[in-house]
Design goal:
heterotrimer, A mainly alpha, B alpha+beta, C mainly alpha, B: alpha+beta, four-stranded antiparallel sheet, C: 10 helices, elongated
């Protein structure tokens, strides 16, 4: 087991290293010269040269690369040319907004995905199964931004069921004192229940949309895994003994399907963090996804690099954890043959 | 029928979320609760240093945090807003004298001036600020030094005594007042600046993040990326004239959200709405639309260094094929004025014969003739635009259709904004749509920025020695009649060369709730919020 | 040889589903795709020019003259939505096939050759997978230039990792099967084995995955177009059309964004159903 763990850690480290290299070279070739942008409309060639020197952009590529690597090892992700802050500081400022949304969306995704998949498996071959499969087919075919727009049109502007997508709080409302950065929690800590409810209301529609869209893959995999588990011979045997069917379903089927379900939760989590970019744009959400969009359009290299590294490391870690969980929860896997 | 525990719980949770949000769905429709408070839907504030490059919203905030020596005089016009004139009135000065030869200026500060924190505002602060704006650490020193005729700020700007500043110019500068009134010359606290001089000695890091207000408002709070709150500054020299007690400037990146919030009464003023939304707003009784003729000039650039635009006849053909009227109607829905060459009709010394004249007439037949004369046929060209500017995009689509009628096939190339900026400033684009607004309404400022050989913002690659001489002479010239003459000659060259084709000047549109008054149109297009009031 | 000697992981799982459902999905998918292709081929011949801007006719609601209404520039939306079918379908299928071929080859190589080749390919694949899909494509476009072709290349690269993994897994298990040593004994070189044996046997599942990937590719391309990358005006493409229609929604004009999205949904759904149907049919 420890050998497996070590090998996975090593692979993850190599992956992260490769990613860092790829990111560096990729962002060096983003269009637009940040020094020109920063210098503005009254620039002189001297000013542009000075700005370039200040940000180390005039040094040869390999020097910039080593500077970048050195910084990475210290947790220094560079400085945003636009805000003037260290990228790590900016990311920390905007991360809680994304996390709050992603966590709620994750809960929605898991609830919807596992429920739909389980119901479909339990009623395999009958109409709830067909309905579930219709849901996953259509849901997996939908462009997220289109669904968001239509949902806003119908649910917000026409029916008024959800508040306007103006950000994390209704306009004119002040944020509570910041402890965690999660507005719902901070509001509760400040004893302001109404504020927490407002924040939750603003979270509702984007989280529901993001979560439902991310649940599709989970629903399908849950269904398949549950069906497999249910058809496995020992479950059939248990059924033959006249035990209550629900007991069989939950206890046996679910536990056997668990490894597969856990793996796909990892995908859901990873998908959420990235899928935020468009949702944050549409809902005016001040998170890291929107931070990245602005950075790409402004050629803010350090931000782009920093974002991809952080998110990439997140993915790799999530995959690592999920793989380990998978191994731990499924005794049938023979580690000597794995990897 | 089997029941599952999970499903009912899920359903209850989702219903709960919907119900909860439904409770929050409503919003107050009137602004009765906040008569002296205003909420403005704008963009992001990324820094507060008057001399660093920043967003328009940040520039507006800075213009309202700091006071200048003089400011532009605003007069009410029939359309219900305050228009900036060519006159300047005292802001923090008590008197302002110019010597007979026009080279020595003496500013006497008003009595008892202080910054918002109570520390005295003296001539030292003025000198510090002016030197700083004209120094290397400033990103706006380029044109300032040139137009103000101050070649050596150290020697030429002096604090005679704590209440008097003397500025000696190289030669009389007609554009001087306009520059002094710009937000880039907002008076900063010299003591704080020197105490936090930082790496470059000019306290850039300090002033980007901190304000030392000398103007009508102070900085109450600044939530990066979300909002800025300003409060009335009781120590401001004209505090008695300031109506608003509190201003909230929200970062609402999505213009549809801005419009919706305005319609709901959640905000009082919405900036930067698209022509379509402005048109919607004009039929809403609860809203007032201010569509004010401004100097934002959209133009078509043809780079004579890039084929086929090296042929003047081709350029003139394109100029004859562009549908100027249609663009103003379809893209801007009438919220624009015609552009006449590089100096629009509402700027001094313009050679425009009238307010409605365009310098080229739309005539597809003539365009075809010119092309035939030039000996080209089946022309295919790339039109580059910035994807971040919807007006450029819309204009490009219509230009594409119109040029097709003249036999020119246009392929539109949308570039990311940073890419467009870099490539166009490097004069690599052969054919593009761009826009420009001068901070100061000075024709030579306009012409220098746009068309002087190898200027940073000369995207067209225009390089005409005669034009350059005329413009440089005009900048140095103090005599009005002579200036008019130089400007007219320069404009004629531009029209003849047809490298720079003005499409239209876009109005500055500000939409407010009907009970809001006091919208200003300054030369730099930044709202002077101290004039805001409620009817 | 009996099944008892084959390891558990290589045994095909049987789904305890009645046949009817797999067929229905497959049939619906094929029908949908056929209808779309038909409309895409025949439509442009019968409908007006999708790029014709008409002054004064912008944003008209659906009516007998303009069944889907008009967009901001006065262009007929039905004509544009139909014109986009060809572009999006060709792009989607093209990208999926390219990703399948390239990815499967890479995965087969990795799986069969093992060792350092395998390690490198897998780590690269993991690294690529770690990038958010369309951020990867955005960067490729930045490197190569903002054009349709390069955008398609970017999406292809983003779609490859799945095929690499899939075919590598199959190659690994195929490698263990007896016919490989047998053909080695018979004198086949490595190349013969890879192309003659491994790829044909590993390509089964990837072929099905391709149809599903075609759907995802259409979504990715649309997302990129939504952000202004790749497709230039006035080309009709579902993603750009939704992007253009986005701000009209607020003022109640839902049709510019609705119809292209609906068609995109049909296209992607068709591919999904076909992919699912094929995989069920293959497994029963």
């Amino acid at each position: 087991m420890t050998r497996y763990l070590l090998r996975r850690l090593l692979s993850s480290a190599i992956t992260i290293a490769l990613m860092a290299v790829l990111v560096f070279f990729a962002s060096r070739v983003l269009p637009g010269d940040p020094a020109v942008i920063r210098a503005g409309n009254d620039a002189t060639p001297e000013l542009i040269a000075r700005i370039r020197a200040e940000h180390g952009l005039d040094r040869p590529l390999y020097e910039q690369f080593f500077h970048y690597l050195g910084g990475l090892l210290h947790g220094d992700l560079g400085t945003s040319v636009r805000t003037g802050n260290p990228v790590s500081a900016d990311l920390l400022t905007f991360l809680p907004a994304t996390l709050e949304l992603s966590l709620l969306a994750f809960v929605v995704a898991v609830l919807v995905g596992v429920t739909v998949g389980t119901v479909a498996a339990a009623k395999a071959g009958r109409w709830p199964d067909a309905a579930a499969r219709g849901f996953t087919a259509v849901g997996g075919s939908m462009p997220s931004f289109w669904l968001a727009l239509m949902a806003i049109f119908v649910l917000v502007y026409t029916l008024g069921l959800f508040p306007s997508p103006v950000g994390r709080l209704p306009l004119g409302t002040s944020a509570p004192p910041r402890h965690t950065g999660f507005l719902t929690i901070d509001a509760l800590l400040a004893g302001d229940g109404a504020l927490a409810a407002s924040a939750l209301a603003q979270l509702a529609l984007p989280a529901l949309l993001l979560g439902t869209l991310s649940s599709i893959a989970l629903a399908r995999i849950t269904r398949t895994a549950m069906i497999d588990a249910l058809s496995a011979s020992h479950t059939r045997a248990a059924r033959g003994l006249n035990l209550r069917r629900r007991h069989i379903l939950v206890q046996e089927g679910f536990r056997n399907a668990l490894p597969t379900i856990l793996t796909s939760m990892g995908f859901v989590a990873g998908h959420l963090i990235a899928g935020n970019i468009i949702v944050e744009q549409i809902f005016s959400w001040p998170g890291i996804g929107r931070y990245l969009s602005t950075a790409i359009s402004q050629s803010d290299l350090d931000v782009v690099q920093g974002f991809v590294i952080v998110v990439g490391i997140g993915y790799v870690l999530i995959n690592l954890v999920v793989d380990l969980l998978y191994v731990v929860s499924d005794p049938r896997i023979d580690l000597r043959r794995a990897g | 029928m089997r029941r599952k525990h999970i499903a009912p719980i899920l359903a209850a949770a989702l219903t709960g979320l919907v119900a909860l949000s439904g409770c929050q769905g409503g919003s107050q429709g009137d602004s009765g609760g906040r008569s002296h408070s205003f909420i403005i839907g704008a963009g992001e504030v990324d820094g507060l240093d008057p001399v660093q490059t920043k967003t328009m919203t940040a520039q507006m905030v800075v213009a309202n945090l700091y006071a200048n020596l003089i400011e532009q005089k605003m007069v009410p016009v029939a359309d219900g807003y305050l228009d900036g004139t060519e006159e300047y009135v005292n802001s923090i000065v008590k008197s302002y004298e110019t010597s007979a030869d026009g080279k020595v200026l003496t500013f006497t500060l008003a009595d008892g001036l202080t910054f918002a924190d109570g520390s005295p505002l003296t001539a030292d602060d003025v000198v510090y600020t002016m030197k700083r704006t004209l120094s290397d650490a400033s990103y706006v020193s380029g044109s300032s030094t040139v137009f103000m005729h101050i070649s050596d700020a150290e020697k030429q700007i002096v604090a005679v005594d704590p209440a008097t500043v003397r500025v000696t110019l190289d030669s009389p500068a007609p554009a001087l007042n306009a520059f002094l009134a710009l937000s880039t010359f907002g008076i900063l606290n010299a003591e704080k600046g020197t105490a936090n001089a930082g790496a470059n000695g000019a306290a850039t890091e300090f002033f980007v993040k901190n304000a030392t207000p000398s103007g009508p408002f102070t900085l109450e709070s600044w939530n990066a990326g979300e909002s800025v709150k300003l409060a009335k500054n009781p120590k401001y020299v004209h505090a008695g004239d300031v109506y608003p007690e509190q201003l909230t400037i929200l970062n609402m990146a999505d213009e549809d959200q801005r419009y919706l919030a305005l319609k709901n009464g959640d905000i009082d003023v919405a900036l930067d709405l698209s022509p379509r939304l402005v048109k919607e707003a004009s039929s809403e009784p609860a809203l007032t639309v201010h569509s004010m003729p401004s100097n934002t000039l959209y133009y078509l650039g043809m780079n004579a260094k890039v084929a086929p635009f090296d042929n003047k006849l081709v350029r003139q053909a394109v100029a004859a094929a562009v549908p100027y009227e249609l663009l103003m109607q379809e893209v801007l829905l009438g919220q624009a004025s015609p552009a006449y060459g590089v100096v629009p009709h509402n700027m001094a010394t313009s050679t425009a014969p009238s307010e409605t004249a365009t310098q080229y007439q739309t005539d597809p037949q003539r365009a075809k003739q010119l092309l035939a004369q030039a000996g080209v046929s089946n022309l295919t060209v790339d039109l580059s635009i910035s994807s971040a500017d919807p007006i450029s995009v819309d204009s490009a689509v219509h230009i594409q259709t119109a040029l097709a009628q003249a036999g020119i096939k246009v392929q539109i190339k949308q570039l990311a904004d940073a890419d467009f900026e870099t490539k166009s400033k490097a004069q690599e684009l052969g054919f593009f749509v761009a826009n420009w607004a001068s901070w100061v309404q000075d024709p030579f400022f306009q012409m220098r920025a746009l068309l002087l050989t190898d200027r940073a913002t000369n995207r067209t690659g225009f390089a005409n020695a005669e034009f350059d001489k005329l413009v440089l002479d005009g900048i140095a010239e103090g005599d009005k009649a002579r200036r008019d003459e130089l400007s007219a000659q320069a404009q004629r060259i531009v029209v003849d060369e047809a490298s720079f084709v003005g499409l239209f000047t876009k109005n500055l549109t500000v939409v407010t709730r009907s009970d809001v008054d006091g919208i200003t149109l300054a030369d730099d297009q930044l709202l002077r919020l101290k004039y805001l009031s409620r009817k | 040889m009996t099944t008892a000697t084959v390891p558990v992981s290589a045994r095909r799982r049987r789904l305890a589903l009645p046949r009817g459902h797999g067929d229905l999905g497959l049939r619906i998918g094929l029908l949908l795709l056929a209808v779309l292709v038909l409309i895409g081929v025949v439509g442009p011949l019968l409908l007006p020019d999708p790029n014709a801007t008409t002054a004064g006719q912008s944003l008209l609601p659906p009516s007998p003259e303009h069944l889907f209404g008009t967009d901001r520039y006065g262009r007929d939306l039905l004509a544009r939505t139909v014109a986009a079918i060809r572009l999006d379908l060709v792009l989607g299928i093209g990208v999926a096939v390219a990703a399948m071929l390239l990815g499967s080859l890479l995965g087969a190589l990795a799986g069969y050759l093992g060792g350092i080749v395998d390690e490198v390919v897998m780590r690269l694949t993991d690294a690529l997978l770690a990038f958010p899909g369309f951020v990867l494509a955005l960067m490729v476009v930045a490197f190569t230039g903002n054009s349709l072709v390069f955008m398609a290349i970017g999406v292809t690269i983003g779609s490859m990792p799945h095929f690499v993994r899939l075919s590598r897994a199959r190659a690994l298990s195929e490698r263990e099967l007896d016919y490989i040593p047998a053909s080695k004994l018979a004198g086949s070189g490595r190349g013969d084995i890879i192309f003659g044996h491994i790829m044909p046997n590993t390509i089964g599942a990837p072929l099905i995955q391709t149809t599903v990937t075609a759907g995802w590719a259409i979504l990715d391309i649309a997302a990129l177009s939504f952000l202004g990358v790749g497709v230039q005006p006035p080309t009709a493409e579902w993603g750009t059309m939704i992007s253009e229609g986005y701000s009209e929604i607020l003022t109640g004009k839902w049709w510019p964004a609705f119809f292209p999205g609906l068609f995109m949904l049909f296209a992607v759904l068709a591919f999904q159903l076909i992919g699912d149907g094929l995989s069920k049919w293959k497994n029963t």
